């Protein structure tokens, strides 16, 4: 046994590591013993790779004074910073780009674990044993009982070592030296935290003599005959048993029988077993056939539409170390929000996640652990994917993904990686994958000529470009023109947004060539933090970082759905329910690709002024995919007096399913009955001046300024025109995709520092008129703003007229009034709810009677920004006031001003003040997706134009 001291050359070696076994399928045995080596390990972190020699790997080494950490885990997320800190960059390498070299400062974690074999472990001369690492970032060297067994890179890929000959019944010493930086880091430049550590399971597997090695389940489905053909190729001969199908065949032999196919909507799995002389391995078989045909991706003979999301593995405490419950939670949340697809951006996930995708039904694009995005900074010079020296490493990564994951029916695409430019290495990967697995297609976004791929894939293409592609007007190479199109990333869910996804979905459904997309991304990668709530880039003092660009998910770090997920659920709902209320029918359309509607129950309800007065079940035929039916509604229930009425029809699960309970809502539609009666206030009262005060009906004003001070005893502060909103992440924008940075334009114009000039306070018999001009210093643009107040004695009406002056070249952030109330807690409104809605994120907002509280109206975007506006509001009650709008308005209410909201960088910066600030908006600018993508479509922009809108105030008794 020899110990080298400082030989760390392997760290910068571009070739795959040494000592590991060839990759193979990842499976759990029915009868072979295994030992999890997860748990508490000893850890010593050194600042460089060679600071310590490797004597710690020797038996008998005393690590008693080392720290203890949990494996799986990242050491920088344990020990309160004592072991180093996380670093977040989007695409910049946090070290000098000089491949394959890495910095001398290379945090290195020596991990040590002593273990005994369990009592039921077979005798050491029976069979062998394999030590498996499911994920280590970024490079590890391993010793067992003092013997160096090898080293490896490829952080999110499994590596196995044969160790049977080294095991002892007790006192086994497993030593793992993990380096944060390695040549592999150049291939792992994904937009995420850099988090070193043994972050997935470590397992010792007994391998019985005659046991299973590797196997490949081929399970095709012939949609014409309704038969499936199963063939399990196995390195070790044996038999394949599928009791439910009466299958008992030899490995390698095909067998064809009638089956129910697997799809994401109908994830039928057949339990089977692979039996060799020494082992039984459970199989979960899904029969499906994926082909490219007529320029379309077809599964089981039908084109599919991806309603997907990009999923990074994330947990706010444990980073990329996820437990099974968290993985299941992700899948259940996806299913419950109508998603049908996941792209495993940008690396193969923990294998258990794929089991869940098979079981619950999600189409998967399995992506290789490969991104070299930082080379874009040097025009892709020296890009490893175009350098033959790196090709073996790329092929190793491709093989480790495909071999590990090949038995999952949910995977329909292999993806070569993300944002790695173009090059021979990618072509080599694609060629190898195509030859190894003909039953799936190959994806890669970075080559718009589609040289190596079976689909034309893009990210963040605008609506106009998507439409052009749909119409096949986009040109491109001959090969590309014959391919289907997907957006592997769109709808950048950073902060408030993404806007415009309903408009995308229309295009996806309209053009056959467009087969859907994947929202960027699933979860905000916020890190739980004692002072900041959730930390993002820069919060750990990183030298280079990309701020909160790492928080761009449809769910918050604690997995609470953000409004973006509610919006997406509605936009992609698999049943369309439409009607106009006039002809007494509702049109129901099945938008599933495979399932009929028999699993759903339909319920109608009838609302009078937002309140449901009657409901009942609606019988809808079990329509097949693509079919529609016009279904008769009952006679509208009678009601008293004039009222706004409407129908709501909901599709819910008729029975419990694996992912949802009976009654879970899948889809809904609303359509109007009788239209709203707009408020009318007869101006029967007149303004009366008395010294410093003007009174009008229930209201009092400051006579000098014309400012409202109270309504019926409720004091009101600072009511005036408001055009500013705390810029959202999308308002901040980026210049590299859309070029739209509203916040810059708005601030340059001065919309955040508008001055209000008082021109006149005029009293007539029935009206108090206050004329003003609202404009920023240094600019000629302005808004002539007139407030007209009238009253019928008990109610107070305000009509605001706004006339833009000068040349306005940018849309307004918002247009409305704001006011402060001394107290407000409960909020009730008739309008859109329950969640927030902006012009291009309002699909999920449904008209009804809603209640909430000021605190609950806030959406906790990690970086504070405009949020929480409720749309289409007829009236709202809060703080002792009832406010009715003509026309409908949007409102928000918070315990801080919009200026304070804007100044905050974390939620913990927001401190409740004494006043509740309420915005009553006539309009807001759309949200868009320009934090990484296109801005709001013109029809969702709030152009500065003459406007008039009214509110009727009364005290809420
Ligand atoms: C894409 C990239 C993602 C992420 C996203 C922005 O270009 O593939 O990893 O960086 O932009 O959040």
Structure description:
By secondary structure, the protein is mainly beta. The chain has five domains: 9-207, Jelly Rolls, CATH 2.60.120; 215-288, Immunoglobulins (Immunoglobulin-like, Sandwich), CATH 2.60.40.10; 292-570, Glycosidases (TIM Barrel); 574-672, Sandwich (Immunoglobulin-like), CATH 2.60.40; 688-955, Beta-galactosidase, Chain A, domain 5 (Distorted Sandwich), CATH 2.70.98.10. The protein is 10% helix and 37% strand. The chain contains eleven helices and 57 strands. The chain has a 16-stranded antiparallel sheet that branches. Strands 29-28-27-26-25-32-31-30 form an eight-stranded parallel sheet. A hairpin with a 2-residue loop joins strand 54 (870-878) and strand 55 (881-894). Helix 1 (324-336) packs parallel to helix 2, helix 3 (391-405) packs parallel to helix 4 and helix 5 runs parallel beside helix 7 (501-510). The chain is globular and about 105 Å long. The termini are far apart. The relative contact order is 0.08. Mean pLDDT is 97; it is low at 1-5. Beta-D-galactopyranose (GAL) binds at residues 90, 190-191, 346, 418-419, 459, 489, 492, 520, 549, 552, 932. Residues 90, 190-191, 346, 418-419, 459, 489, 492, 520, 549, 552, 932 line the site of beta-D-galactopyranose. GO terms for molecular function: beta-galactosidase activity; carbohydrate binding. Keywords: Glycosidase, Hydrolase. Its EC number is 3.2.1.23.
Name of the CATH architecture of the largest domain:
Alpha-Beta Barrel
Query: What is the global morphology?
Result: globular
Largest sheet properties: 16 strands, antiparallel
Number of helices: 11
> What percent of residues adopt helix (DSSP H or I)?
10-25%
The ligands bound in this entry are: beta-D-galactopyranose
Rg from alpha-carbon coordinates: 31 Å
Q: List the domain count as a whole number.
A: 5
How far the N terminus sits from the C terminus, by CA atoms, comes to: 87 Å
Task: Decide which structural class fits the backbone.
Answer: mainly beta
Mean pLDDT: 97
CATH class (first level) name of the largest domain: Alpha Beta
Name of the CATH homologous superfamily of the largest domain: Glycosidases
| DSSP summary, beta strand count | 57
The CATH topology of the largest domain turns out to be TIM Barrel
GO biological process, one term: lactose catabolic process
GO molecular function: beta-galactosidase activity; carbohydrate binding
Family: Belongs to the glycosyl hydrolase 2 family.
Keywords: Glycosidase, Hydrolase
